[in-house]
Amino acid sequence: MFRSILNSRITLNGSQSMIKTICSSKMSSEACSQYKTLKLTVEKPFVYHVQLQRPDKYNAMNQTMWIEIGKCFQELAYNGDCRVIILSGIGKHFTTGIDLMDMSKIAAELADQDDVARRCKILNKMIHLYQDSITSLEKCNKPVIGAIHGACIGGGVDLICATDIRYCTEDAWFQVKEVDIGMAADVGTLQRLPRIVGSASFVNELAFTCRKLQASEAKESGLVSKVFNNVESLLQGAIELGVVIAEKSPVAVQGTKRNLIYSRDHTVQEGLDHIADWNQTMLQSDDFMNATVAQATKSPPPTFSKL
After folding, report:
1. Active-site position among 22, 98, 196, 239
2. Are 34 and 23 in contact (CB under 8 A)?
């Protein structure tokens, strides 16, 4: 789908002089959008940063944010200037999850319907909208690095479970909160978290009790791979990791992500067949030839063209 390019100029804050917005004239002509609940910046070449931006609401996820998350990651998936995405939150917390006040709009819409079938259709549409928003991170072929600080509750856990790599601060905490508000989590946590941590008992405990999972235990369980002292070091670590990944072949990195996700959801043999079909084409790429020659001759890594 083609999207129009924003023409408006964006003035940079002096404290962010090192950062260009993705809609800057210095960026490529790939389509970009202006968001109300997200902030998009470019930290380093090919390293994009998506920040949840409702700090006065602790980044609670209203319907606008759900929609914009899906749109944002769909756009970045086809942006050749983007190879890695960092996801973080502005303010005190990463996110406190779904905006319960915003849910009153759905309640009003349901109240207008007397028939259960009509009410179910409204809820089904909403649930699938939110599910698709979270899954957009997974479908985006660029690696997504979650950088979590403070609270990560409910929908926030759904969101980070769809990222590829997760870092957090030592004061971060996680909570599968849905049972406490009288519902089962329905946009990804129950499906993805067991695969991430590899322990059904542990996930069941978190989901049934809604207890807080502190950063140290999150690392022990495998939910996050690194813990940092503060937000500044967290973001620096995420950016440094992004730079390392962005310097590698986008053909190789994006192909690796797609095959990791495919293999997670299929048998070993199906995964092997999939990568065989994939690489019978991709091994003919210039990236493979150039990288192989550089390795064999101990030359500096090649500069890979955009994908």
Report:
1. 98
2. yes
The one-letter code for the residue type at 7 is N
Neighbours of 178 (CB within 10 A): 23
Angle between helix 250-264 and helix 286-296 axes, rounded to 10 deg = 110
Per-residue pLDDT reduced to its tens digit, 19-55: 344 444 344 434 456 899 999 999 999 999 999 999 9
State the catalytic residue, choosing from 43, 99, 158, 287: 158
Find the catalytic residue in 138, 178, 247, 287. Answer: 178
How far apart CA 248 and CA 93 sit, in angstroms, is 32
Residue 160 to residues 118, 129, 247, 267: CA-CA distances in angstroms?
32, 17, 24, 25
155 catalytic? Reply is: yes
158 is catalytic: yes
The verdict on whether 98 is a catalytic residue reads: yes
- From 150, 155, 242, 255, the catalytic residue: 155
Q: Which residues have CB under 8 Å from 33's CB, separation 6+?
A: 3, 6, 71, 72, 75
pLDDT confidence tier of residue 106, bands split at 50, 70 and 90: confident
Q: What is the pLDDT of residue 222?
A: 97
Helix, strand, coil content of the chain in percent (nearest 5) = 50, 15, 35
Per-residue model confidence (pLDDT) at position 32: 54
70: amino acid identity, one letter: G
What is the model's pTM?
A: 0.88
Distance CA 197, CA 216 (A): 14
- Which one of the listed residues 90, 186, 237, 271 is annotated catalytic? 186
Q: What are phi and psi of 157, to 5 degrees?
A: -65, -40
